[in-house]
Design brief:
The complex is a heterodimer. By secondary structure, chain A is mostly helical. Chain A has a domain of 201 residues: MetI-like fold (Orthogonal Bundle), CATH 1.10.3720. Chain A has 13 helices and two strands; from the N terminus they run αββαααααααααααα. Chain A has a two-stranded antiparallel ribbon with strand order 1-2. In chain A, strand 1 and strand 2 form a beta hairpin. Chain A is globular, with a radius of gyration of 24 Å. Chain A starts with 8 loop residues before the first helix and ends with a helix. The C terminus of chain A is likely disordered. Chain B is an all-alpha fold. Helices cover 74% and strands 0% of the residues of chain B. Chain B is built from 13 helices and no strands. The two termini of chain B are 29 Å apart. Classes of the chains: A mainly alpha, B mainly alpha. At the A-B interface, helix 1, helix 3, helix 4, helix 5 and helix 7 of A face helix 1, helix 3, helix 4, helix 5 and helix 6 of B.
Amino acid sequence: MRGSLSFSSQRNFAATLLLLPALALLIGLLLYPLVLGIRSAFEMTGADGATKFVGGRLFSVLAHEPRFLADVLRSVVYVVGNVGISFVLGYGAALVITRPVRAAGIVRATIIIPWITPPVVSAVLFRSMVDPSKGPASHVVQYFLGSGFMILGNAQSAMATVIVHSVWRSFPFIMLMIAAGIAAIPNELYESAAVEGCGAFRRFRYITLPLTKLHCAIVLLIVTMWTIQDAEGVYALTSGGPGYSTEVVALRLFRESFLNFDLHIAAAVGVVLLLISGVFAALYLSLVGGKRVEL
Amino acid sequence: MRKHGLAWWAAAAFYSLIALGPLLWILRTSLAPEHTVSVIPASLSVEHYRAVLSRPEMLRYMFNSVLVSLATVGIVVPVSLAAGYSLARYQFWGQRLAPLFLVAPLLPAIAILVPITRFMHQLGLYDTLAAVILTNAVFTLPLALWMLRNFVSGTPVEVEEAARIDGCSTTGVLLRIVVPQAAPGVIAVAVCVFIGAWNNYLYAFALTSSQDLRVLPHAILAFLGQWGTYWGGLSAAGVIAVIPPVFLFLIFQRWFVAGIFQQWSR
C-alpha cells in the first residue's frame, strides 16, 4: 500500500473515528434491515396475527409454484438476452471510441447518455415508441405483421421490448469498462504486430481480446447482477404483462412487497435473489481481489 | 499507425444513432403539437411543457427531486471522504472490511427495501423525504467510499506528512490538504451520487405515500397512470427529468468518466 501513515494507537483511534459515520449508516440501514429481511423469510403470520417461525416452508412453497419457476426462467432469458446483446454492442463501441480520432470523445459522450437517463424516463420513452397507434417501432412491426399488432400485447414481443430497453441502458457501461481495458494495452504490441504483418482481425484476436479478458469478465458479472435485480425498468415498461409474461424474479419481489404486501413471501423471494447475487458477488471479488485490489 | 477511414465514421454514426435515436424521439414528441402524425413535425410547440409546468404539483416534484439529490450528496460526500481517507491512509482493522464496500453496491437493494421501510416506520420517518434521502445515501455510500479511497491512495502522502510535522492537526490536514487534493475525486463522486439519487424511483416509491412527497420519476409513473397515452405531456415531463443528469454529466464528463474507471477497474 502506497504511503500509509505510521502506526500508533492514537492513529488507530483517528482512523476508527473517520470510518465511524459510514459504518454507523451501513450497519443501521443496510446490515440490520438485511438481517430482519432474512429472518422474516422464515416466518409466517398466522390467522391470529401472530408471527411464528416456519423454517424453510416458504421456500418449498416457492419451489413448487409454477409461477415462480416461470419467473426464474424469465429472469434467465432477460439476463442472457440483455448481457449477450449489450456485450457485443458495448465491445464494438469500445473499439470505436478508443481509436485516436478527435471525434471519438464526442461519440463517447453521446453513447454514455442512455446509461445516465432515469430508468423511468427511458421506460416511458420506449412505451411511446411501441404505442400501437403512434409509436414508430409499432409502425415498422405492423408493416410486416399486420396493422392491429400490439407489441406490448404479445408475450414474446413484450419480452423483446424489455430486453431492447435494457440493452440500450446497459451497453454504454460495458463500453466504458472495456475501453478502460483497451486503453491500458501498450501501443508497441500493435506496432510490432503490424510489422510482423498481422491484419486488423488478427491484431484484435491475438492482442485486444486476450488482454481485455479480465475487464470483460468483471463487466459481465456487474451487468448480470444489475439485470437480475432490475425491477423498476421492467415495472415502468410493462408492469410484468401481458399476464405474467415479462414478470422476472425482481419484479415478482416488487409486486409482493409493494403491491400485494405479502411480506413473508416477498422476503423469501428476496433471499433467493440475495443468494444468486451472492454467488456472482463472490466470483466478482475473486476476480477483482485476486488481480488488482491491494488491501 | 492505425488507419481510420469510412468504416470508423460509419460505426460511429451507427452507435450515435442507437444512443440518440430514442432521445430524439422523446424530444420530438415533447415538442410536436398533439395529433402530429409525421415523424418530423411540420411545426413545433411548447404546449406540452406549458401543460406540465402549469400543474402546481409539478414544481413541487421538481423541488423534491432537487432537495433529495442535493441532501444525499451532502451526506454521502463528507461521510465517504472521511471513511475513504481512513481506508487509504491508515493500517488498521477497517482494512479487513474493504471488500465489503466493493461488493455492497452490487447487492440487490430491492431485496432489503421492505425491512428498511418497516424500520423507517419504527423510527417515525416513514412518509418523509428524510427517509428517502437516508436510503439513497446508504445505497450510494459504498461506491462513493470506494471511489474516494482509490482517489486518496493516488495522491501523494508527503504533503500531509509535512503539514503534520509543522503541527497541523488531523482535522486541519483533512480540511486544508486532503479535501483540496481530492477535489476532482470529490466532484466525480458528487456527480455520481447526484445522478444516482435523481434517477431513483424505487426508494421514493417504497418510503412515501403522500402525493406531495413524490420525486420526479415517481411522479412521471403516476402521470402515466392518470394520462394514459398523452405522450406529449409525458415526454415533456421526461425531458425535464433527463436534463439535470445529462447536463451535469456533460460538464463534469472528464472527472466522471475517470472516477468510474477508478471505481471498477482497480
